[in-house]
């Protein structure tokens, strides 16, 4: 109970300034589906920050899931301290962003990605990404 109360009073990981429970928490809990590619991308960043590998797999497009491993996703999510999300640009089905984190060796890192999303059966999915 104490942990839930602490989480509810915290700002969302995705840097909207909203409380987690009123932002990405709505989607990570399974109560709602992300209404846009941008919202899904933000919620996926929050899933990395909160170590929710199940959500990351569920929101990856079905044909792409074979390229991912839930234990590997979780290992990478837990080994980094997620600092900040910066949205560079977005369209209806793409999001360009930078995710800032401290790696397991305590070095500051920036993950750049241009992500593509797919809308199918009224649900947004992560399709793929181009990295620098």
Structure description:
With 132 residues, this protein is α+β, with helices and mostly antiparallel strands. The chain has a single domain (2-131), classed as Nuclear Transport Factor 2, Chain: A (Roll), CATH 3.10.450.50. The chain is 30% helix and 31% strand. The protein contains five helices and four strands, in the order αααααββββ. A four-stranded antiparallel β-sheet has the order 1-2-3-4. A hairpin with a 3-residue loop joins strand 1 (81-90) and strand 2. The chain is globular and about 40 Å long.
Number of strands: 4
One letter per element, helices H and strands E, the order comes to HHHHHEEEE
Distance from first to last alpha carbon: 41 Å
Number of domains: 1
């Amino acid at each position: 109970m104490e942990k839930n109360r602490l989480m509810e009073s915290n700002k969302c990981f995705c840097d909207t300034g909203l409380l987690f429970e009123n932002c990405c928490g709505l989607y990570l809990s399974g109560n709602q589906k992300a209404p846009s590619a941008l919202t899904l991308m933000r919620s996926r960043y929050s899933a990395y920050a909160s170590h929710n590998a199940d959500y990351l797999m569920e929101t990856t497009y079905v044909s792409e899931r074979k390229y991912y491993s839930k234990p590997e996703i979780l290992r990478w999510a837990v080994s980094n301290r997620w600092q900040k999300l910066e949205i560079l640009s977005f369209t209806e089905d793409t999001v360009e962003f930078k995710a800032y984190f401290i790696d397991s060796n305590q070095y500051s890192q920036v993950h750049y990605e241009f992500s593509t999303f797919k809308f199918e059966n009224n649900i947004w999915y992560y399709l793929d990404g181009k990295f620098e």
